[in-house]
Amino acid sequence: MSTKVFKKITVTGCSDESYKQAIEAAVAKAGESVHGMAWFEVKEMRGAIEDGKPCEWQATVDVAFKVD
User: Do residues 47 and 54 lie in contact, with contact meaning Cβ atoms separated by under 8 Å?
Assistant: First the structure.
């Protein structure tokens, strides 16, 4: 029987357009230095406001990768 073990890191992505793009940015950036990524979990969603309007979407995600 094979046993899988994962480690999680937390990253926050930002976008001027949407939460989806913020999540994609966070996962893509993590992928530049983390190998074997398996899944992500959205922990927080928030945004910035400028002149009374949303101007930035931010998503904090846990990214899990398999431990060798």
Answer: yes
The pLDDT, as a whole number, for residue 68 is: 85
By three-state DSSP, how is residue 51 classified? coil
Give percent of the chain with pLDDT exceeding 90. Answer: 94
pLDDT at 1 over 90: no
Do residues 7 and 67 make contact, with C-beta atoms less than 8 angstroms apart? yes
DSSP secondary structure string for all residues of 10-48: EEEEEESS-HHHHHHHHHHHHHTT--SEEEEEEEEEEEE
Q: 3.40.50.1820, 3.40.50.150, 3.40.640.10, 3.30.1660.10: which CATH number matches 6-66?
A: 3.30.1660.10
